[in-house]
Design goal:
The chain is of the alpha+beta class and 455 residues long. The protein has 11 helices and 8 strands. A hairpin with a 2-residue loop joins β1 and β2. α9 runs antiparallel to α10. It starts with a helix and ends in a 30-residue tail after the last helix.
Length: 455
């Protein structure tokens, strides 16, 4: 195989036959060609591919079709029959025996009360508004969830990269311990402890790699792609600022995506109350029928008949019928209002909790990045240098353990901050952001410290 793939040398440059390049590329495992995706692309693709959003759009179309015919008149009725037909005696079932027997054809049209038709139209329109509100809330939820999934993958990648960067000093410590033991100046226990520390680091890397694979699966759920090929590329939005100021978020709770369906549900209940009240209005109908009579036994023609009918409902017992419907609809409206108030309180509590958590995580991360991490790195490097110069091993093992724990906490806190930020950033629909309250998501003046390059 080596001879078949050996390159030809020309002017010091390796040139491969085209067929060999194609074959070599085809033999590369698919998982090794990672599908790098940025934060913005992840959100856009998630919204475009989410089955739940497609389902909401289909329901909107269904509501639109129903709303278009809600106030329409019912279909007319065609009537066919025979009247005044003898059924007893010698002339039984003889259509020509009695002069009043005639064949009939008619048309009947019902006319529901205009108030009822308007009420049905209003209910259908409110149901359409509810479908649109649910679709908007679902779009926000998909953006929030996909943003959190991408940030979680990004943080997991950095955790793996940070732990893998510690392999080299761990190997240095193992080699130094073996060399000192072989030279007689070190103890076997130090060499074993250094090897145990290196193995512990590998265990930590394996655990971080498992979290990375789980994060890939979480993002793949929104992008409908193979999880093993996904990789977060670029930087996430700055979690130090929100697209809407916290004070504006607190002042616009009623316009949060989570409350939009409740507002629409209450509007539907109010429209159904109006429809129940309109149920007291009587309906009426109008019909025409034409009757054709048979000739006399002597063959003489008989005159045909025309009948006009008018009918109207008589709501005489409204106390046991329409009033009960009205009372039930008003109770449903009261229930919808109470449930909306409860949802509003829950949303206000959730917002305040997330704002407090967001502020606390920012302070904790700033302390880790500005003080704790540099201190841990300096301590670990100093302890390793001291050991290489003949000092004890235990100070380095302790320093390295603390550094590993801090790196893991740093990566997880960054992911947690990003998830909390996404919860706050996607509370309001884009078309309902309050004016003069917008902040840049990517603010050049408030960029976080430079991050390590992605693996």
């Amino acid at each position: 195989m080596t001879r078949l793939l050996s390159p030809s040398h020309r002017h010091g440059v390796h040139r491969w036959p085209v067929s060999m390049l194609v074959l070599a590329f085809a033999l590369v495992p698919a998982a090794s060609i990672a599908s790098a995706i940025t934060y913005e692309d992840a959100l856009r693709n998630a919204v475009e591919r989410a089955p739940s959003i497609q389902a909401r759009q289909s329901r909107i179309q269904a509501r639109q079709a129903r709303a278009a015919r809600a106030a329409a008149l019912p279909d007319p009725e065609l009537k066919l029959g025979i009247s005044n037909l003898p059924v007893t005696g010698a002339d039984a079932f003889d259509t020509g025996a009695d002069m009043m027997t005639m064949k009939q054809i008619g048309l009947m049209q019902a006319f529901p009360a205009r108030a009822k038709r308007r009420a049905r139209q209003a209910v259908a329109e409110r149901l359409l508004d509810q479908a649109r509100a649910l679709s908007l809330a679902e779009r926000l939820e998909v953006r929030r969830a996909s943003a959190q999934a991408w940030i979680e993958l990004w943080a997991a990648q950095h955790e793996v990269a940070a732990l893998q960067a510690l392999r080299e000093p761990a190997d240095v410590a193992v080699r130094a311990a073996k060399a000192r033991t072989a030279g007689g100046s070190g103890m076997v226990s130090d060499a074993l402890a250094a090897q145990a520390g290196a193995l512990d680091l590998e265990n930590r890397i394996d655990a971080a790699q498992a979290r990375l694979e789980a994060a890939r699966a979480g993002l793949a759920r929104w992008l409908d792609e193979a999880p093993e090929a996904l990789r977060a590329e670029g930087k996430p939005p700055s979690a130090d600022t929100l697209p809407v100021a916290p004070a504006a978020l607190l002042a616009s709770i009623d316009r949060h995506g989570a409350l939009l369906p409740w507002r629409a549900r209450e509007a539907v209940a109010a429209a159904e109350v109006d429809a129940a009240i309109a149920g007291k209005r009587p309906d009426w109908s109008l019909g025409f029928s034409y009757g054709q009579r048979e000739r006399t036994p002597a063959g003489l023609p008989r005159s045909d008949m025309l009948m006009v009918e008018f009918a109207i409902d008589l709501p005489l017992f409204t106390g046991n019928r329409q009033e009960r419907d009205i009372a039930a609809s008003r109770a449903e409206l009261d229930a919808a209002g109470a449930e909306r108030d409860d949802a509003r309180r829950l949303q206000a509590e959730r917002l305040q909790r997330h704002l407090a958590l967001w502020q606390g995580l920012k302070r904790r991360l700033a302390r880790i990045e500005d003080a704790s991490l540099p201190l841990a790195r300096d301590r670990s490097r100093t302890a390793l240098a001291a050991y290489a110069a003949g000092g004890g091993l235990q100070p380095w093992l302790d320093a390295r353990r603390d550094e590993v724990e801090l790196l893991i906490e740093h990566a997880r806190r960054r992911g947690e901050l990003g998830r909390v930020w996404a919860d706050l950033a996607y509370l309001l629909p884009e078309n309902q952001l309050p004016e003069n309250q917008l902040l840049e998501i990517q603010n050049p003046d408030n960029q976080p410290p430079e991050q390590e390059p992605l693996p």
